[in-house]
Amino acid sequence: MSLNIKSKESADSCDCLALGEVMLRFDPGVQRINKANNFDVHVGGGEYNVVQGLSSCFGLNTTILTSLVDNEVGQLIASMIASSGVDRRWINWQKFDGIGQQARNGTYFMERGFGVRGANAVMDRGHSAISKLQVNDIDWQNIFQQIQPRWFHVGGVMAGLSEQSPDVVEAAMLAAKAVGAIVSYDLNYRHSLWANRGGKEAAAVIDSRLIKHADVLFGVNNLKQNIQSLDVDVFSQALLETKQRYPNLKSIVTTMRIVKDASQNLWSGVCLHDGVISAGSHQHDLAIFDRVGGGDAFAAGYIYGMLQGLSAQQSIDMAIAHGALVMSTAGDNSSASLKEVLSLAAGGDASAKR
Question: Residue 259 and residue 282: Cα distance in Å, rounded?
Answer without folding.
Answer: 17
